[in-house]
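Rather than argue in generalities, we reproduce a single protein record, letters for residues, whole numbers for local backbone shapes, just as it appears below:
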Amino acid sequence: MASNSKKSVIAAIGGNTIVMIAKCIGFFFTGSSSMLAESIHSFADVLNQSLLLIGMNKSEKSPDTEHATGYGRERFIWSLISAVGIFFLGCGVTIYHGISHLLHPTPHQDYGLWPFFILLFSLVIEGWVFYIAWKSIKIEANEKPFWAYLRKEADPSAVAVFMEDAAACFGIIIAMISIGLTSWTHETYWDAIGSIIIGVLLGIIAIWLIQRNRELLVGQRIPDQDMDKLQKILQKGFLGKVDHIRSEVIGAEQYDIQVEIEVNEHKLVETIPISLQEEYEKIQNFDDFSAFAQKLSVLSMEHLTSTIDQLETEIQKELPKTRFIDIEPN
């Protein structure tokens, strides 16, 4: 699943690089405010998606003595940096340029259909990248509701690509409308308004992504449906009452689960593979009793350990995202 996210990020970097070059050429020849806004938008996308790729690569490092649960949160940190970049570079610069152009308009110049050809070409590329990002998340979501999965469970790197390219497609359409209205009315404020709208759109997406990565960095428990599965598995066991469950998403498709269980000694003893009647009949003296007590103690510990191992195995089978699990008997 993580490989799908990485493929979508790499595809986005390649596609947006081509689009950025095309838009920059368009701005160089037309001087359009909306075209500049789209050029900045694509540059910000390439930069931010490069940061996402860095985070994905770093998050795949194996656990070590200093980071016992691995480097999964690296992905969230770099995704957060990427989102902040969208806000300041994409949103801030684009809105600033639009307002500046609105306050200090330049004379209208007609460049024919070239801006539209460039934007249409960009829309095809961005649409292809958007489809790859959508398909990646759709595969990961499986049968879960797409938007709910996107909001709460999806890899933040894949979500960032999906949201950025959705904004890119809308932004190109807005730019085409703005340039079209400017050509039709010869009023350049349409171009400036288009730039501001694109900036606001980027700002909304950036704030959403910042909030999502903040939740993951602060520490988010596993999704409700997975928590329900975990509780059902624990209730099936005979260890006893579950005192406490602590779960946390520690990376893309990575869970850390810790459980404290109050062991029911009576139920546990009943399931130990030993015949107490046969053992009792063997006792003739204190030494026999001492040997039996030691044997029962060892069997009890082995049985408890085996039962916990079976529970942990079943949990990892039902919740394959579980990377670390610890069941502590009290």
The mean pLDDT is 81. The beta strands are 240-251, 254-263, 322-329.
